[in-house]
């Protein structure tokens, strides 16, 4: 069992909460695997997206749940190799971009958001 948690800062938390409702929250490792991964790693960097999917969506590829201040976040278990036990998602006030941080520092400096229900993208 992997003990991992993610904390969303105030700005990212509000943005996600305004859209989440009873839906599922995913942290997707962008490796081209599964229905919510947009592309494989083509730039030789680790890349993640935050996703919202319907409660009945197929999330069978997401076999690990991590705790957060927004409730459970589903991830592909093997993507934990690229994550740290203590994660945080930050909004960059200067340009509105998001960055994922771990114990070792910045893991992804350009995290995108996709709501698969409304097709909203950030």
From TrEMBL:
SUPFAM superfamilies for the chain: HesB-like domain
Top-level division of the source organism's lineage: Bacteria
Any single Pfam family the record assigns to this protein: Fe-S_biosyn
Positions of transmembrane segments: none
Domain Core: 4-114
UniProt name for this protein: Core domain-containing protein
Organism expressing this protein natively: Lacticaseibacillus pantheris DSM 15945 = JCM 12539 = NBRC 106106
Lineage: Bacteria, Bacillati, Bacillota, Bacilli, Lactobacillales
């Amino acid at each position: 069992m992997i003990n991992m948690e993610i904390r969303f800062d105030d700005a990212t938390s509000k943005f996600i909460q305004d859209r989440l409702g009873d839906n599922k929250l995913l942290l997707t490792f962008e490796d081209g695997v599964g229905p919510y991964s947009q592309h494989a790693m083509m730039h030789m960097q680790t890349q993640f997206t935050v996703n919202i999917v319907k409660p009945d969506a197929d999330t069978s590829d997401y076999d690990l749940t991590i705790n957060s201040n927004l409730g459970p976040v589903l991830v592909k278990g093997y993507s934990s190799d690229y994550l740290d036990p203590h994660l945080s998602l930050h909004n960059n006030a200067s340009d509105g971009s998001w960055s994922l941080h771990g114990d070792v520092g910045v893991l992804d400096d350009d995290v995108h958001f996709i709501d698969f229900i409304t097709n909203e993208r950030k």
